[in-house]
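It is worth pausing here to work through a concrete case rather than discussing structure prediction in the abstract. The textbook approach is simple: state the sequence, then state the predicted structure, then interpret. We follow exactly that order.
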Amino acid sequence: MAESSASSPPSRITRLRASLNIKRIRVALNLLGWVIAVGFFVLAWRRLIEREDWEQTLTDLNVGYVVLALVLLLGGLIIRSQLAYASHRGLSYDMPHTRAFRFWFLAQMGKYIPGGVWLFAARVVFYRNNGMPMMLASAATVWEITSILSMGLLLSIASFGLFENALWGYAIGIIAALMFIAMMLSATSLPWRILSRLRHKTFEKMLATQRELGNGRYKLLAQLSTMALVSWVVVGTGFYFLVLAVDGDSNISWWTATISYTVAWTIGFLTIFAPAGLGVREGIITLLLTPIVGETTALTVALLARLWATTAEGILIGTALVWHFSLKGFNMPGTQPTPDVSPEQTISG
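Step two, the predicted structure:
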């Protein structure tokens, strides 16, 4: 007993030190993300104003196409929000379409905090408020994000030979294919059986959850992936009209525009140290579009796309906030308040 109590304090100190080191790494990554984002926008803006035709490009902007692009983006994001409805229904939990909309876009605020885990944590908390156990709420959130990313990666594989810069096209296609395979494997129990040998709670609970749900999870993932694919098509169409708004004479195809934005969004999302993919997404758009539409148009589209995406999410998040607090916040009929949950708790259960 004496030995056990004597070994306990050092163990706590070790955990505290590890937690402190993780926080320091996050702070460093957050700063790096902001440096990359600000650096890109400063360089892009300077590069753009050096072009003689940039003022004419802005003057010729087709406002009608910009509005159409915004409407399509809003529609695509609303479709995506219903993944929350589908995951709850698939797991036999009640989630009206309207509540799915509110929970989804309130959680989206976490995306703008560098580090990537806050969106995940917020959604888990909302799902717990809706009656889901912690581990099931975490699993549902993982599957929703997996469906969005896997369909984004599936479309990104089409970059093989699509872009004039063959090296980048093949590199993106190969990496997307490998990551897509990895995500498909994560839906099976094989990787979790292997990882559970590390005796980590996260891996053990994911394996237990998959075993409990059985093969029913494949049907749920298929439904979520189908909805995610539809949302990508609608969002990609919106981006296509955004390109046409900047350059109506562009010969870019709908398919190329859709793939370009999908690739940029997916890479931006996976770059967890960049807040909402800031800077990374715009850099990829510029890189992929410049050989097709020219540097001025590509830079203009990249900067406009950020405003386009932020405006759409701002409208939807604002709507969700007003709607949510008009129903007295968390204390709504059929929900129970849940204690604050940190990202570490949601992941480890």
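Step three, interpretation. Confidence is low (pLDDT under 50) at residues 1-9, 329-349. The first helix runs from residue 2 to 50.
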